[in-house]
Amino acid sequence: MLFWITNIIAVVLILSMFFIGMFIDKIHAKKFTVKNIALLGLIVALSIILTNVIGYSSVFGFQIMIGNFMIFFAGMVFGPLGGIMAGFCSDLVGSMIHISGTFHFGFMLAKIFIGFCGSMVFIFRNNNLWFIKMIFFLIFSLAITSFLITPICLVASGLGSLAAINYVKKIIILPIELLIFIPSIYACLKLSSVLLKSEIQQPFRPWFLRHGQLKFKTTKSTKK
C-alpha cells in the first residue's frame, strides 16, 4: 500500500512542479528553438552518461551520481521547464539502461526537483550574489533528495535496510559531491556565458541571461 501511495504522491508533485514551471516561465517557455533543444539534449545525454556509466561504478563502496550537476545546470540555463525536462528525460532513459529493481516515480521526482532548483538561482530580479544562490539551492536540492525523497522511495520499495545504509553513505558523500559539483557548474556556466553571449539581446534569451550578463571572478596579475 505504501508503495502505491508514495507513487501517487510523487506523480502529483511532478505534475504540480510542471505547472508551476509553466506559470513561472510563461515567456521563456517559447525559447525552445531547435538549437536550444539540441543543447538541452546534449546536457541530458551527458547527465545520463555521467550517472549511469561513471556514477554506478562504485569507488570504495560509494556511488556518486555525477550527472546530477548537469541536471541542475540545465535548470540554470533553460529555466524551470528546461530543468524539469532534463530531470524527467535523464531518469526515464537511465531507468531503461538499468532495468533492475522496482521503478518508483519518487526517483524521477528527485531528479526533476534538482533541475527545478537550478532554475531558482535566477528567479530573482537581479543577478546579485548569484554564486551564493547557486550554492544554496544546490545544497538544498541535494539534501532534500538524498535525505528525504530517496529514503522514502527505498522504504516504500521494500528496501528499508538499504535506505538506512544509503542515509549514512549520503552524509559522507554529500561534501564530496559539492566539491565536484560547484566548480563543475561554475565552469560550465562560464563557458555557456561566452558561447551564448550574442543571445542576450534576443527576446527569448536563455534563462540565466534574463537579467543581463553574469559577473565572474577574474584574477588580476600584479607587476613587480
Evaluate the radius of gyration.
Answer: 18 Å
User: Which band does the percent of strand residues land in?
Assistant: under 5%
Mean pLDDT: 84
Text of the CATH class: Mainly Alpha
Low-confidence stretches: 219-224
Number of strands: 0
Total number of domains:
1
Structure classification: mainly alpha
User: How far do the termini sit from each other?
Assistant: 72 Å
- Taken in chain order, the helices and strands follow as HHHHHH
The third-level CATH topology is Arp2/3 complex 21 kDa subunit ARPC3
Number of helices: 6
Can you walk me through this structure?
The chain is mainly α and 224 residues long. It has one domain: Arp2/3 complex 21 kDa subunit ARPC3. The protein has helices at residues 2-24, 34-55, 68-97, 105-120, 130-156, 160-195. The protein is globular, with a radius of gyration of 18 Å.
Quick summary:
This protein is mainly α and 224 residues long.
Key features of this structure:
single chain, about 220 residues, mainly alpha, Arp2/3 complex 21 kDa subunit ARPC3
Write the layout of secondary structure elements.
Elements: H1 2-24, H2 34-55, H3 68-97, H4 105-120, H5 130-156, H6 160-195
Helix pairs in contact: 1-3, 1-4, 1-5, 2-3, 3-4, 3-6, 4-5, 5-6
